[in-house]
Amino acid sequence: TQLLEQSPQFLSIQEGENLTVYCNSSSVFSSLQWYRQEPGEGPVLLVTVVTGGEVKKLKRLTFQFGDARKDSSLHITAAQPGDTGLYLCAGARGNMLTFGGGTRLMVKP
Amino acid sequence: NAGVTQTPKFQVLKTGQSMTLQCAQDMNHNSMYWYRQDPGMGLRLIYYSASEGTTDKGEVPNGYNVSRLNKREFSLRLESAAPSQTSVYFCASSADRTGREQYFGPGTRLTVT
């Protein structure tokens, strides 16, 4: 059983559509990060959220940390083919990160 | 800056063989990590080193050993490879001990037959 559950596992959409990816847990984290991974490469950090209720924006990507610091969401507006990849959330506790299973996103032109 | 580098990029082993995966970072980071990534499982922590001279077990340490050679380098050793260790291995580093904001290498794809 994964400590961090991501949904959906797979998402295939058309260019221009909006989408939301969820990361849920029953555990509290001191911070939560979102990474994006492309085939054959390592994950790349997108954002870190620390405070409950925090919202961060990165161009067309909006990240939110739940009030109780147990869950997070990633919203992409007007998705583009370049957004295609595996999106991973990771929660920090102590000096370790626990990763979710990932959401594989495909944006078709 | 190269960031985090890993060698080799690909490796095929026979069951029972041993090998060492090498990792180096040039960002002067204190903490380093080894993960494995299997389909549908995300990344699972094998071992980590919060600072030079210390190592600790992660979620899946069995069958692996690590060495923090110096601040830059952190190696992962498989003493007797098993097919269950077929995976993609990633090394990562972080500036502080909290483990957040990790920077990853490109990975080593290992197949054990």
Sum up the structure in keywords:
heterodimer, A: 109 residues, mainly beta, six-stranded mixed β-sheet, 0% helix, B: 113 residues, seven-stranded mixed β-sheet, four-stranded antiparallel β-sheet, 50% strand
What does this structure look like?
The complex is a heterodimer of chains A (109) and B (113). Chain A contains no helices and 11 strands. Chain A is mostly beta strands and 109 residues long. In chain A, the strands form 2 sheets. In chain A, strands 2, 4, 5, 9, 10 and 11 form a 6-stranded mixed beta sheet that branches. Chain A has a 5-stranded antiparallel beta sheet with strand order 1-3-8-7-6, with no helix packed on it. The model of chain B has no long low-confidence stretch (mean pLDDT 93). Chain B is globular and about 35 Å long. At the A-B interface, strand 4, strand 5, strand 9 and strand 10 of A face strand 4, strand 5 and strand 10 of B.
Layout of helices and strands:
The complex is a heterodimer of chains A (109) and B (113).
Chain A: E1 5-7, E2 10-14, E3 19-24, E4 31-37, E5 44-49, E6 55-58, E7 61-65, E8 71-76, E9 85-93, E10 96-99, E11 103-108
Parallel strand pairs in A: 2-11
Antiparallel strand pairs in A: 1-3, 3-8, 4-5, 4-9, 6-7, 7-8, 9-10, 9-11
Chain B: E1 4-7, E2 10-13, E3 19-25, E4 31-37, E5 43-49, E6 56-57, E7 64-68, E8 74-78, E9 87-94, E10 103-104, E11 108-112
Radius of gyration of chain B: 13 Å
Q: Sketch the topology of chain A as an H/E string, one letter per element.
A: EEEEEEEEEEE
Quaternary organisation of the protein chains = heterodimer
Category from helices, strands and their pairing of chain B: mainly beta
What is the CA-CA span between the terminal residues of chain A?
35 Å
Brief summary of the model shown:
With 109 residues, chain A is mainly beta. Chain A is 0% helix and 56% strand. In chain A, strands 2, 4, 5, 9, 10 and 11 form a 6-stranded mixed beta sheet that branches. In chain A, strands 1-3-8-7-6 form a 5-stranded antiparallel beta sheet, with no helix packed on it.
